[in-house]
Amino acid sequence: MGEGGKGGEGSLEEMASIYVEAIRAVQPEGPYRLGGWSMGGVVAFEMARQLGGDVEQLAVLDVFAPGHSGDTVDEATLRAWFARDLAGLLGKPLPREMEDLSAAAPLPEAFARAQELGLLPADLDFAAAARRFEVFRSNLRRMERYTAQPYPGRIQLFRAAGSHFVDPADPTLGWGALAAGGVELRELPGNHWAIVRSPAVEAVAEALGRGR
Q1: How far is CA 114 from the centre of its chain?
Q2: For the segment 79-133, what is each residue's pLDDT rounded down to a tens digit?
Q3: Closest Cα partner for 37 from 73, 3, 78, 74?
Q4: pTM (2 decimals)?
Q5: Model confidence over 126-183: pLDDT tens digits?
Q6: Which end of the chain is less congested by CB atoms within 10 angstroms, N or C?
Q7: What is the Rg, in whole angstroms, of the alpha carbon atoms belonging to the chain?
Q8: CA 204 from chain center: how many Å?
Q9: DSSP string, 99-167
Q10: 8 Å CB contact between 160 and 188
Q11: Do the Cβ atoms of 82 and 102 come closer than 8 Å?
């Protein structure tokens, strides 16, 4: 699972239950192996809770545990994160100039400047980018409203060596407080976005296979 599902109304628990129903429609009984990157890791966690003892493996890739990252994100920060995310998915860093513009300027202006700098796909129009932003915002707000309950099993946490998800006081990024079976932490080369692109994604797949 990637960054998350559709935007709009509804809770993260409801999103996870839709995925659980889809899984059970194909495979009524476990064992199940679940994993997700970024917000998808939080959704996979809630899916594992709903599936109960049928889960053989739960892996979360490069994301804080629910509630661990702190306060509610304001709109300017959320827009800057969205710009960073789009650029990161293309393997490009976001210049500070663009981060500031994304946070402060009207969305059409920020979008046009990002395309001028080659930070967005040339074939992405503003309407499509605006829809993506609404999904991004909705998903982040879902995460902010979500209160995680303890998980009885073990969690595998895969963290990118160059990740922006860092907590020197807690290398488990908060997952240790939720996993009764403990957290197995593995670090992989690359940053938050590189670990889901080739060639780093092959190392992720190999590590997941070893964790069965």
Answers
A1: 23
A2: 888 888 888 888 888 887 787 777 778 888 888 888 888 877 778 889 998 999 9
A3: 3
A4: 0.88
A5: 999 899 999 999 999 999 999 999 999 999 999 999 999 999 999 999 999 999 999 9
A6: C
A7: 18
A8: 15
A9: HHHHHHS-HHHHHHHHHHTT-S-TT--HHHHHHHHHHHHHHHHHHHH--PPPBSS-EEEEEETT-S---
A10: yes
A11: yes
Nearest Cα neighbor of 7 from 129, 144, 131, 145 is 131
User: Which residue is listed with tokens 């402060």?
Assistant: 104
Assigned fold of 12-67+146-210: Rossmann fold (3.40.50)
Length of the chain: 212
Q: If you write DSSP's letter for every residue of 150-209 in order, what string do you get?
A: PBSS-EEEEEETT-S---TT-TTTTGGGTBTT-EEEEEESS-TTGGGSTTHHHHHHHHHH
Q: Which amino acid is at 64?
A: F
